[in-house]
User: Which sequence fits this backbone?
């Protein structure tokens, strides 16, 4: 029998997976998570003040509950991440928070106050091509009113969205919500003899790319199709040339900048015959404009724009698109365009899919992850002011009781603190404290313990002062931000540092 101790050496001949994350998914650490949490907390406070109640639905829904086209029984993984349950039913991770709301409203309608006003936040998943600032998993935040067909309900959602984005960290001139009405295109397509719902939806999704592709790209998608820069070919809506020309005139009708909401509606009304559906759309938008004016919503915060259509098929009337106007750059200082950070609109037929009865609904949604990324790219990181914990340095295992006592005392006083529990030396521990963003390092060496004192190093002050230092030797000798105090002054001294006061004593 062998008496050798088992080896701790790793098995080298076994295949090892590559340490990599899936495309379009993120690993997020403290600052990112804190930034998103702060946005959600601020926006949630606004939504609750407006009378909206929180609702949380499950991550998975049955695939047929998510919509007719996205996905369906023939392509259960089209646009979503789906799996088959043990009873052979297809389930899919929710791609937004609206379809689950419709399912919940239909399921619980008899017990809900009507109209039902809810807000929700949480992760959603989309099985689509990722890109800059566009992920397959991200956090959304929604507010919806279910059970009201009044245009004032749409106006309230818009005013709520403006205040919510401001609470999230944007100035009033750094985002703009553009509004249109799907019925305008219903009238336009009807006049052009386009009756096929799938063809209409393809055309609407093409028009939805107007701000990104311009008219040349949109016209190709309205016709035969388009080959993008990556080599991918997208089949077009196959609209007749005459209808494409009508769409072009319609989109150009309100292309003039600085038009008021009322002036935009006048320009759209004069673009051509929009039929009964188009006339109804204009009346709805006029009522929304009147309500926005009464609520004091600025003309630049919410404007009417006939190019807005939204890509999802369940919208039935008014549609919204929140565009970021805040200048943003990447980590190399190059301009980055985030474009849309949210949207929504009216979806009067979504609940009816479950009940067979029309239930009007309207709502707004924005991407929390996307907005946080945009704020970070603008130099306005919501987590930029986040402090790490106070770090207690460990000098000797023999004095561990003193270190544990100090960190417990700080925590009891409501101060975030941790004891360094690695096995590195002093220099490495100070580097650790710096990487944690610690405001203070607490040092209880043998001399301090014997003398009944504690040494505090104000790392925030050190970071500020280091920017003006040219002589490293002088810097070390000065020991900026470092003071030794009586041990019983630990808590008040650290609290003074955290409050921005200087340590005296």
Assistant:
């Amino acid at each position: 029998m062998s008496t050798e101790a088992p080896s701790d050496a790793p098995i080298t001949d076994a295949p090892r997976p590559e340490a990599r994350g899936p495309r379009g998914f993120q690993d997020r650490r403290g600052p990112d998570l804190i930034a998103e949490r702060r946005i959600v907390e601020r926006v949630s406070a606004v939504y609750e003040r407006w009378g909206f109640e929180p609702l949380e639905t499950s991550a998975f829904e049955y695939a047929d509950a998510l919509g007719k086209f996205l996905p369906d029984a023939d392509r259960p993984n089209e646009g979503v991440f789906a799996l088959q349950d043990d009873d052979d039913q297809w389930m899919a991770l929710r791609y937004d928070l609206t379809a689950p709301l419709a399912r919940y409203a239909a399921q619980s309608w008899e017990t809900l106050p009507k109209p039902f006003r809810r807000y929700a936040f949480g992760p959603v998943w989309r099985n689509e091509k990722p890109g800059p600032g566009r992920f397959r998993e991200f956090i959304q935040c929604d507010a919806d009113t279910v059970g009201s067909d009044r245009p004032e309900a749409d106006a309230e959602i818009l005013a709520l969205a403006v205040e919510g984005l401001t609470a999230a960290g944007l100035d009033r001139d750094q985002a703009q919500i553009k509004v249109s009405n799907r019925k305008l295109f219903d009238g336009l397509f009807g006049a052009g003899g386009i009756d096929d719902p799938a063809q209409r939806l393809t055309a609407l999704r093409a028009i939805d790319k107007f701000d990104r592709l311009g008219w040349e790209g949109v016209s190709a998608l309205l016709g035969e199709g388009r080959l993008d820069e990556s080599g991918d070919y997208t089949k077009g809506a196959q609209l007749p040339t005459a209808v494409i020309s009508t769409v072009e005139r319609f989109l150009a009708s309100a292309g003039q900048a600085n038009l008021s909401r009322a002036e935009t509606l006048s320009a759209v009304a004069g673009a051509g015959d929009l039929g009964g559906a188009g006339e109804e759309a204009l009346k709805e938008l006029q009522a929304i404009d009147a309500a926005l004016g009464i609520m004091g919503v600025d003309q630049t915060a919410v404007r009417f724009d006939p190019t807005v259509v939204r890509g999802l098929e369940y919208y039935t009337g008014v549609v919204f698109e929140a565009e970021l106007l805040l200048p943003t750059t990447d980590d190399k200082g190059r301009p980055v365009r985030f474009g849309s950070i949210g949207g929504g609109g009216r979806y009067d037929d979504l609940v009816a899919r479950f009940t067979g009865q029309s239930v009007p609904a309207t709502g707004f949604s924005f991407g929390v992850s996307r907005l946080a990324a945009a704020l970070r790219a603008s130099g306005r990181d919501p987590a930029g002011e986040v402090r790490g914990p106070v770090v207690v340095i460990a000098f000797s295992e023999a004095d561990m009781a003193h270190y544990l006592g100090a960190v417990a005392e700080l925590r009891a006083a409501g101060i975030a603190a941790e004891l360094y529990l690695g096995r590195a030396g002093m220099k490495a521990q100070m580097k650790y404290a710096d990487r944690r963003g610690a405001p203070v390092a607490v040092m209880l060496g043998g001399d301090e313990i014997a003398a009944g004192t504690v040494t505090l190093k104000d790392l925030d002050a050190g970071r500020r002062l280091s920017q003006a230092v040219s002589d490293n030797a002088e810097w070390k000798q000065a020991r900026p931000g470092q003071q030794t105090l009586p041990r019983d002054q630990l808590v008040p001294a650290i609290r003074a540092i955290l409050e921005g006061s200087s340590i005296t004593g």
Notes: The two ends are 67 Å apart (CA to CA). Residues 159 and 297 are 6 Å apart (CA to CA). The chain has a mean pLDDT of 85.
